[in-house]
């Protein structure tokens, strides 16, 4: 493989790395020079960074290897983007059973983070629908399945620490058609928002929440429920792009409050039902390339936690703190989750998850530390795909299966060649 020194960042752009990158075009190009594998770097923090070391960019390894039209089993290379799978297979009546909020996520990344989607309450996590993984461990190529229990659970949601994922087989699910029927309704406050999420019987359900609202409006937002449907795919305009880093005042508190108020009112009082293309429903922000530049040169942090069902009031307390900080952006999401998870370090638990973006201003880390402690106190956990600031002590307390993961990973990679900035920051592979 050819190596080239480059500087790169996670999607939040607040953390960066400089090191040698290789971009193999064929699996045969991969040799025993093992290094962390990275994809489109849609993780927000340092999970895909290896400052001062090497990393292997897998995005050119994006081929469809096989598809069984009868069973729905799809094998693809690790660099295949989920959005491309949707575009190829949804017109044929098939869909990945779980999709995160961006179609740029690769299959390898979706496995490494055990991503979840707007249907977690009934479909579980991505890793629960993976049936086979081909790994490169040193000079050995190995195929694993759920029967390889410890290694399997250390790989799903395992931050890429058990080996380089070469390809994976996914159990696709049938879908009615290539579009989504989406019903949008306003939630006027916290209690109504939670009640609407709890009552939803839709296959897909997600809430946008106004993280700047206070007092009686605290927790107001828009709840979307959706089902796949037959129909003509709506015409989609060419993607827009953010050409420059936005100035620091672009997301000032008054501007965000005004935008959120307008966004909330875009849905009529009585609600509405619309038809959207699957990319527009599943990956709404993908229409704006480089939207992370809206946060300016310093980038941003995303805080995402999940707390148990009976601790939902702790999320309300978090929202109160966030709204008073003046740091919240327009991007905030509230969802109800089920219990499904595939690996030792998989994020989901049955409960409610809140995700909020914060511009990387000097006061943001202190706010996020407070939110992290509130998560710990509630018996919840943070999503490692979004984290850039947590301590190893907190993360280990949130993930009781961490020792099992550590032991399996250190057995698979005894020389720690796959370590990343995140695993080192959180001391995940070190003794307790």
Determine the number of helices (DSSP H or I, runs of at least 4 residues).
12
Order of strands, widest sheet = 16-12-14-13-19-20-18-21
Task: Estimate the helix proportion, in percent.
Answer: 10-25%
The major β-sheet equals: 8 strands, antiparallel
Please identify the structural class as seen in this structure.
alpha+beta
Keywords, please?
single chain; 432 residues; 24% helix; 8-stranded antiparallel β-sheet; 5-stranded antiparallel β-sheet; alpha+beta; globular
What would you say this structure looks like, in words?
With 432 residues, this protein is an alpha+beta fold. Helix content is 24%, strand content 26%. The chain has helices at residues 82-89, 107-113, 120-123, 149-155, 190-199, 253-265, 278-282, 312-325, 364-377, 392-398, 402-412, 421-425; strands at 4-9, 16-22, 37-38, 54-57, 64-67, 73-77, 94-95, 130-137, 140-144, 164-171, 173-174, 179-187, 204-209, 221-229, 240-241, 272-277, 288-289, 300-308, 332-337, 351-359, 381-382. Helix 8 runs antiparallel to helix 9.
Topology of helices and strands:
Layout: E1 4-9, E2 16-22, E3 37-38, E4 54-57, E5 64-67, E6 73-77, H1 82-89, E7 94-95, H2 107-113, H3 120-123, E8 130-137, E9 140-144, H4 149-155, E10 164-171, E11 173-174, E12 179-187, H5 190-199, E13 204-209, E14 221-229, E15 240-241, H6 253-265, E16 272-277, H7 278-282, E17 288-289, E18 300-308, H8 312-325, E19 332-337, E20 351-359, H9 364-377, E21 381-382, H10 392-398, H11 402-412, H12 421-425
Parallel strand pairs: 2-4, 3-4, 15-17
Antiparallel strand pairs: 1-2, 5-6, 6-10, 7-11, 8-9, 8-10, 12-14, 12-16, 13-14, 13-19, 18-20, 18-21, 19-20
